[in-house]
Design goal:
The chain is α/β, with parallel strands linked by helices. It has a single domain (about 5-145, about 175-205), classed as Vaccinia Virus protein VP39 (Rossmann fold, 3-Layer(aba) Sandwich), CATH 3.40.50.150. It contains 9 helices and 7 strands, in the order H-H-E-H-E-H-E-E-H-E-H-H-H-H-E-E. The protein has helices at about 5-10, 15-35, 50-60, 70-85, 120-130, 145-155, 160-165, 165-170, 180-185; strands at about 40-45, 65-70, 90-95, 105-110, 130-140, 190-195, 200-205. The chain has a 7-stranded mixed sheet with strand order 3-2-1-4-5-7-6. Strand 2 (about 65-70), helix 4 (about 70-85) and strand 3 (about 90-95) form a beta-alpha-beta unit. It is globular and about 50 Å long. The termini are far apart. The chain binds S-adenosylmethionine (SAM). S-adenosylmethionine binds near residues 45, 70, 113 and 118. S-adenosylmethionine binds next to helix 2.
């Protein structure tokens, strides 16, 4: 059960400017990464507006990109946009963590700013890793004890929306550490991006 109704959310809300800027930077970073690792297929879970996927799909026209999200409204919007842009290599489908229905596997799986809303976070991370081809990579960020502390400090006591949106995290019900990620995946997470302890992006190789 999600803390907010994402389907309704994306019917009315645009992508926040800060999120969009970050997604553009992430596209630059992933472009270099994909080139250096010879990545041939990519899936993003909790894709939202998919700014990163659109940028990458425009650049790597012979690589297939897939965006998954629980919210049907954003899947419809993205599908329409990809069609208008003539991006035949970018497709979208509704799917949910922690138990995605789709069984397709990919060289690169990403999941950004989404595990913060998933209660069964360990199951979700395991299922995401199962979607990675041998030799491929999973890249994601996750809520940890520092994230909780930061949100506790930053969210105003009267901000009922933010308290509801991040209820799981604030209650400490879906926090995880790099040590625990290593235990559940049997592979060592390496830092991919971010110097702040409350928002670390890790990379795990399925070797
Ligand atoms: C904060 S947005 C992040 C969007 C995008 N990844 C980004 O970094 O800008 C969180 C996204 O996760 C999706 N989401 C939330 N819970 C989910 C779940 N359990 N399974 C799949 N998607 C989920 C929401 O619909 C939303 O699009």
């Amino acid at each position: 059960m999600s803390s907010i109704n994402w389907d309704k959310h994306w019917e009315t809300n645009k992508e926040p400017e800060g999120a969009r800027d970050f997604a553009e930077k992430m596209a630059d970073r992933l472009r270099e990464f994909m080139r250096s690792k010879g990545i041939g297929s990519v899936a993003d879970y909790g894709c939202g507006h998919s700014t990163t996927l659109f940028r990458l799909a425009e650049h790597f026209t012979d690589i297939d990109f897939y965006g998954y999200d629980m919210a049907t409204s954003i899947i419809q919007k993205n599908t329409e946009k990809a069609r208008e842009l003539g991006l035949m290599n970018l497709s979208f489908a509704q799917d949910s963590l922690p138990n995605p229905r789709k069984t397709k596997t990919f060289d690169l799986v990403t999941c950004f700013a989404t595990l913060h809303y998933v209660e069964e976070i360990e199951r979700a991370i395991k299922r995401l890793f199962e979607r990675v081809n041998p030799g491929g990579y999973l890249i994601f960020n996750y809520p940890n004890t520092y994230t909780r502390k930061t949100y506790q400090e930053d969210i105003q006591p009267d901000d009922e929306y933010m308290k509801r949106r991040f209820a799981l995290l604030l209650a400490g019900r879906n926090l995880i550490s790099q040590r625990r990620i290593r235990e559940i995946l049997g592979a060592r997470p390496k830092k991919f991006y971010s110097s702040i302890k409350s928002n670390i992006y890790v990379l795990v190789r399925n070797s």
